[in-house]
């Protein structure tokens, strides 16, 4: 049975300034947690595997411990990036990204590289692709071959643009609880092929750690790096006001305009928010 992963606030003996509130440290020697309550002096956040019915977890434990090691000492704005780097080390994938998902738009928090960022931009602009399907269905989406067959037919425009960007397979895991998806963990490869059963289990451990980390940080009111992607929501509001329409058609207008001009929706939103592009024919 796969162990559940918890993120708890912990205290460390003899803590120094680097163990300050809001930092991530892995559970291990010198970290004691009893009944969910930490002991000792300095606060931090511990990422620790948790078992049900006495299961040892084996390889899953090792994956969770390695992920915890990657999060050692990370500040809130560093966590998504470190999780991406951990995923590229733990899994046979080319790239990784972590995104929040709100109002039909993936808001990227981190990406392992330009290709992963580009894949997210494509899906944000199209409003279609594996990340949208995973977020809306709350299910893992495994697109083993975007070059042909059912995966290419499922999202034809996305598949074409993804393969043009050098992506041949995509695997997306929803983040959150069974009934609520708060984001996605997006993995991709530059060659088609399935993600093996053991690798999929590791990816699910990583997704649980990511979800737990996001939950803790949101509770602490920690700032998240939205960057220009946060402007997509602002731009949607601007178009709503300019055209007197609701959010869904306003977002559709933005996506259609971005697609027609072969630009990312993030760049278009930036121009709209600053008043350089209008949708009501004025200016």
What is the topology?
Blueprint: E1 4-12, E2 24-26, E3 33-34, E4 37-38, E5 42-50, H1 59-70, H2 79-90, E6 95-102, E7 105-111, H3 114-126, H4 130-137, E8 141-143, H5 149-154, H6 156-164, E9 169-176, E10 181-189, H7 197-219, H8 230-243, H9 247-260, H10 265-273
Helix pairs in contact: 1-2, 1-7, 2-7, 3-6, 8-9, 8-10
Protein model, in words:
The protein is an alpha+beta fold and 283 residues long. The longest helix is centred in the last third of the chain and has 23 residues, at 197-219. Residues 1-56 have low confidence and may be disordered. Helix content is 42%, strand content 21%. It is built from 10 helices and 10 strands. The chain folds into 3 domains: 4-75, no CATH class; 90-219, GAF domain (Beta-Lactamase, 2-Layer Sandwich); 227-273, Arc Repressor Mutant, subunit A, CATH 1.10.10.
Residue windows where pLDDT falls under 50 for at least 5 positions: 1-56
- Give the fraction of residues assigned to helices: 40-55%
The rounded distance between the terminal residues' Cα atoms is: 61 Å
Biggest beta sheet summary: 5 strands, antiparallel
Shape, principal axes of CA atoms: globular
Number of domains: 3
CATH level-1 class of the largest domain: Alpha Beta
Instruction: Identify the CATH homologous superfamily of the largest domain.
Output: GAF domain
Second rung of CATH, namely the architecture of the largest domain: 2-Layer Sandwich
Which percent range describes the beta-strand content? 15-25%
Overall average pLDDT: 77
Our Rg estimate from Cα atoms comes to 20 Å
Structural category = alpha+beta
Order of helices and strands: EEEEEHHEEHHEHHEEHHHH
What's the count of strands?
Answer: 10
CATH fold name of the largest domain: Beta-Lactamase
